[in-house]
């Protein structure tokens, strides 16, 4: 399938659920051809792909471990083969394992660093090599790098690394007309965020936000769509999407 002249193509890592799914849906509505990446949720990815195609859109599902450069290279190649090129790469993939630092299982630290840091580097490296002129690379951090909630130490360490990777990559791509930004959501009602939290904890986090609610995935995907397309003068930035959480 050749690329249409006015068709932008996006690869969404972690696109089968949560914020990633919302990003896929939003970009599909805006006419993007989409590569929906999944790690383990192949069924969810295929169902989302079928839903987009049934509505007249273009989408394919691609699997792989974001920290495995061979599998990710194959995923990029499949999207390029299907749609002609890649204009936007959005990496929402990540894992979150919470613990006080004093009690941290270092195996959990290694797991998060492999997926969150190595994965971000693998994806960012491939995106830097393959994204078309006029394109965008969008990585994901967390607002907890600033709000500094207890128990998030190891997770925040991995996300702070992603912020630095993205800001440096934006400068390394000078002259290529490719933007690189990081989106840092606040408390957002996704399975990843809600897992392991009771109602009191959830309400406490919602009340910490001046708008007095949790974010919804579409709150985040609206910002991602802006950075992916029209926001060509935003580059090398961390965008906190959190309803005003301090």
UniProtKB/TrEMBL annotation:
Gene3D superfamilies: NAD(P)-binding Rossmann-like Domain. InterPro entries: KR_dom (IPR057326), NAD(P)-bd_dom_sf (IPR036291), SDR_fam (IPR002347). GO terms for biological process: bile acid metabolic process. Residues 8-205 form the Ketoreductase domain. GO terms for molecular function: oxidoreductase activity, acting on CH-OH group of donors. Keywords: Oxidoreductase. It comes from the Bacteria. This is 3-ketoacyl-ACP reductase. It comes from Lysinibacillus fusiformis.
């Amino acid at each position: 399938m050749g690329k249409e002249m006015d068709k932008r193509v996006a690869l969404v890592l972690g696109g089968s659920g949560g914020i990633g799914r919302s990003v896929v849906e939003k970009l599909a509505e805006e006419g993007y051809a989409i590569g929906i990446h999944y790690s383990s949720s192949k069924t969810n990815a295929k169902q989302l792909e079928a839903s987009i195609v049934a509505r007249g859109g273009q989408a394919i599902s691609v699997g792989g471990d974001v920290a495995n450069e061979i599998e990710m290279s194959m995923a990029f190649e499949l999207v390029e083969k299907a749609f002609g090129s890649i204009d936007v790469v959005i990496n929402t993939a990540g894992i979150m394992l919470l613990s006080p630092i004093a009690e941290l299982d270092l195996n959990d630290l290694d797991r998060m660093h492999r997926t969150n840091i190595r994965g971000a580097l693998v994806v960012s490296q491939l995106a830097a090599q393959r994204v078309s002129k006029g394109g965008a690379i969008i990585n994901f951090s967390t607002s907890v790098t600033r709000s500094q909630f207890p128990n998030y130490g190891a997770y925040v360490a991995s996300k702070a690394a992603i912020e630095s990777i993205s800001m440096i990559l934006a400068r390394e791509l000078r002259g290529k007309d490719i933007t690189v930004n990081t989106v840092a959501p606040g408390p957002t009602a996704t399975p990843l965020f809600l897992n392991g939290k009771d109602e009191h904890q959830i309400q406490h986090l919602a009340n910490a936000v001046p708008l007095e609610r949790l974010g919804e995935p579409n709150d985040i995907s609206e910002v991602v769509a802006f950075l992916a397309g029209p926001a060509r003068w935003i580059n090398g930035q961390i965008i906190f999407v959190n309803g005003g959480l301090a």
